[in-house]
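Course assignment 3, question 2. Fill in each field.
Student: A.L.
Task: Predict the tertiary structure for the chain below.
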Amino acid sequence: MTKAGCGYNGGSCYTIVDQCEGCQRVMDLEVGRYCSSYPNPAIKWKTSHCNFATHTKQDVAAQQAKINPLKASKRATKKK
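Answer field:
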């Protein structure tokens, strides 16, 4: 959503949801509060968190892939 209007879905953007409160990307316009990065914020928050959100911190440890213990032990023996 820009001040000139919205180019999503025939010119209609959706207002922010409760999870968006506190984000720096929220725009206060005379017709409502909209996200400046994404036209339908409810879809972004449907599965987990919005990757555009500036007010939330992502847990880096949870994003790391699980290590296969068998491969880790083989790598450790190669280094010796």
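Instructor remarks: The longest helix spans residues 69-79. The beta strands are 26-29, 32-35.
Grade: pending
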